[in-house]
Write a structure and sequence with these properties.
Elements lengths: L2 H9 L12 H10 L7 E4 L6 H7 L4 E5 L2 H10 L5 E5 L2 E6 L2 E5 L7 H4 L2 E6 L8 H13 L1 E13 L14 H8 L3 E10 L5 H5 L6 E9 L20
Parallel strand pairs: 1-2, 1-6, 2-5, 6-7
Antiparallel strand pairs: 3-4, 4-5, 7-9, 8-9
């Protein structure tokens, strides 16, 4: 999807993908993703997810990235959070407590400049990518993880002949193809969610499965970031 597509979606309030409750897979498995406690989480395409505040309450610095400034402004307003902002080209950063919201294109994150992260939450990023963008996204996600760093990846599977994304169906076999060479992949669970998401039935689906995977970047290669410890969230900006 073109960044302008998501900016327009937020501008028009067409955000049926937003959830007002914390992602259940995150609640169940946060300790597996961040076993030491206090690890900094990167959240690609974060929108105004309440997961950000939940992670902060658990003691984690958080860096959320989204191209739609409106989404980030709505998060700050709805959470009642004071903030300071500053330019950090190619991003604009909104800092509030231990949360930093980076407004800009996720693909502009450079591990050499911005560092790498010990923990990552993909709550709806991969499934927002059309097939031709997923290989590049997977490469960048791996590059932004510390060696040994972990990512909670939440995906969807459905009959793609019945509905055009986004969100897109990403078969679990594709995860192995995209990430298997660089990451250990552990299945955490799967569940049918069509009854919880009836608008997908209206779009033509008769089955919809949500799954959760734990990706651990294999050790043996040095971090590609410079590791410079700056900013309230503990990362380079």
């Amino acid at each position: 999807m073109d960044p302008a597509y998501w900016i327009e979606r937020w501008a028009g309030g067409r955000i049926g993908f937003h959830r007002t409750t914390v992602q259940p897979w995150l609640v169940e498995h946060a300790g597996r993703v961040a076993p030491l406690g206090g690890e900094c989480f990167l959240v690609p395409l974060c929108g105004k997810s309440v997961d950000l505040a939940w992670l902060e309450r658990r003691g984690h610095p958080v860096v959320g990235v989204d191209v739609a400034e409106r989404a980030l402004q709505e998060f700050l307003a709805e959470q009642g959070r004071p903030f300071a902002d500053h330019p950090a080209p190619p991003f604009h950063v909104f800092a509030s407590g231990r949360i930093e919201l980076w407004c800009g294109d996720f693909f502009a994150l450079d591990p050499l400049r911005h560092g790498t992260f010990p923990a990552l939450l993909d709550r709806a990023a991969l499934v927002s990518m059309p097939p031709e963008r997923r290989a590049a996204y997977a490469r960048r996600l791996v590059e932004l993880l510390d060696p040994g760093g972990r990512a909670l990846l939440i995906g969807l599977e459905y009959d793609a002949a019945r509905m055009a994304g986004p969100p897109f169906s990403v078969p679990r076999a594709e995860i192995e193809e995209r990430f298997g060479a660089d990451c250990r992949i552990e299945a955490l669970g799967a569940r049918p969610i069509l009854d919880e998401e009836p608008h997908f039935r209206a779009r033509g689906l008769d089955a919809l499965t949500e799954y959760a995977l734990l990706l651990t970047r294999r050790r043996g290669t040095p971090p590609r970031g410079d590791g410079a410890p700056v900013s309230a969230a503990g990362r380079a900006t």
